[in-house]
Amino acid sequence: MIDTPEEARGTSTGTVVRTVLPPAETSPAPKPVARRENRLRALDGLRLVAALMVAGYHYGGRDGEVVRAWGSSPKHQFPTLHQLFAYGCLGVQVFFVISGFVICMSGWGRPLRSFFASRASRLLPAYWAAIIIVTAVFALPAVAYKAVSPSDALLNLTMLQQPLGVDRVLGVCWTLWAEVRFYALFALCIVLPGANRRRVILFCAGWTLAAAIAQGVNEPLLNMVLMPEYAPYFIGGVGLYLVHRDRRDAYAWGIVGVSWLIGQHYAVQRLWHAPNPEFFSDRSALGIMLVVTFGYVAVAAIALGWLNWANWRWLTVAGALTYPFYLVHEHLGWVAVKAYHQTLHIPSYGTLPATVATMLLLAWLLNRYVENLLTPKLRRALAKPRPQPTLR
């Protein structure tokens, strides 16, 4: 869904000033300066945690198509854990907070063309591959799940299937549509005029107020553009990046606090219901609030540098696998669950980790043979400036 931190920071170029000393003057050769690594590897680890939360929800925290894969409701497969898995859907809110942080970091000081090239090249290669793979697998006679029509599958390649009312190939792509709208708002309001602290603060305040108004008037167009139910998480992430730049910034902390207050409200409002045997999940309002708070606190700890000690290289790999894993884990996970549980008769508590491991392996293949090959090429093609026409 978002860049790894080291990709987001990018590089900067400057003018190198060379001082030529007179021949008679001598000076000791300067010692090489160690290059500081600017990776926030803990953020990569948090992304994987959020992805695994969502996977737990899709595999064991709800009914639906996954019932056919298990052969019965996940409530029967996981009598105790299904209640915890039901909170996994809040991994999406954690993703959105991370996205706000990283997109602000990515867009700061970057021209619009470069920002667009970075976003498109990050999202599209793995997404296109996931669309093709899921469509092909669901078209197999041995797979009992219904594939979308060829026309709808082609339209899914645009990422515009949801506003156009077309069947989705990937169930999780609704979150990408939210991400794309956030990117567009940030690009128009921040990247295009040039990022600075004052502009980012006004953007967060303006979006918060506009989203509240849109919710109040219940205008469909405003709701689609301003995303009142998701805006607080993106805004909170942006505020946390300001905290990362200056931990004493009172305005930044104010943005984070207000976004958390609104975000926990939307999460409780949409995901809590009174205990009812007809519903699969039985989430508590306090549990929902705690998971949302976990997302904010975890990103805040990273922003403040409290988790800089988590600098293991494998976290970078984990971050790289998160996006392709997120894309393929749900639909292809159904196929894997049925194969492991109903065909190979592996118990549910063995099928679950086996399915997650299989999806991580597929994510690694997509990262290595799709993203690593196509992302740099697509980024260069989109970032390359157009030659100016010559006048004759």
Descriptive notes:
With 392 residues, the protein is an all-alpha fold. The protein has helices at residues 5-9, 41-60, 66-70, 74-77, 81-85, 91-107, 112-138, 150-156, 173-191, 197-217, 220-226, 231-245, 250-271, 285-303, 313-343, 348-383. The longest helix is centred in the C-terminal third of the chain and has 36 residues, at 348-383. It has 16 helices and no strands. Helix 15 crosses helix 16 (348-383).
Summarize this entry quickly.
The protein is an all-alpha fold and 392 residues long.
Along the chain, the helix and strand elements come as HHHHHHHHHHHHHHHH
Mean pLDDT: 89
* Biggest sheet details: none
The total beta strand count reads 0
Count of individual helical segments: 16
Strand-pairing-aware structural class: mainly alpha
How would you sum up the global shape?
globular
Low-confidence stretches: 9-37
Ends: how far apart?
A: 46 Å
Report strand %. Answer: under 5%
Q: Into which percent range does the helicity of residues fall?
A: 55-70%
Q: What is the gyration radius calculated from CA atoms?
A: 23 Å
